[in-house]
Inverse folding.
């Protein structure tokens, strides 16, 4: 779950709304209409703050995003287990990923990354790395 505090990017002094992604398309459009955004397919949402179970998404703060893309990213992230989320967050930091397009692309390329969460069993680390690299 991703909670985004957004405002209309065209009107920087518009009031703020909170959106919890992923969300139903109709509910999202109702909320966006409150701040004068009538099309969720254009990058017109200025992100003021992001919170939720993926804290590294704060890289999107102070950027304009497409609400549909954010909804899609949230749905992709909801399907991840804890290991995939750790790889996702580590890759964002390692590769300095800052755009929505790159974040979405990353969700399809996590097989290029391995994250070590414990150093006690090197055989297990090697096996995980081999499986990650060979899409196992």
């Amino acid at each position: 779950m991703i909670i985004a505090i957004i405002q209309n990017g065209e009107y920087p002094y518009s009031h703020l709304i909170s959106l919890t992604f992923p969300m139903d398309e109709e509910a999202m459009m109702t909320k966006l209409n409150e701040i004068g955004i009538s099309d969720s397919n254009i990058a017109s949402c200025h992100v003021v703050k992001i919170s939720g179970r993926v804290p590294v998404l704060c890289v999107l703060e102070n950027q304009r995003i497409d609400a549909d893309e954010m909804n899609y990213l949230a749905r992709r992230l909801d399907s991840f287990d804890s290991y995939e989320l750790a790889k996702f967050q580590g890759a964002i930091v390692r590769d300095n990923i800052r755009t929505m397009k790159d974040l979405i692309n990353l969700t399809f390329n996590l097989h290029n990354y391995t994250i070590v969460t414990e150093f006690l069993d090197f055989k297990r680390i090697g096996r995980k790395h081999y499986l990650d690299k060979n899409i196992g």
Observations:
- The first strand starts at residue 2 and ends at 8.
- Strands lie at 2-8, 17-21, 43-52, 64-66.
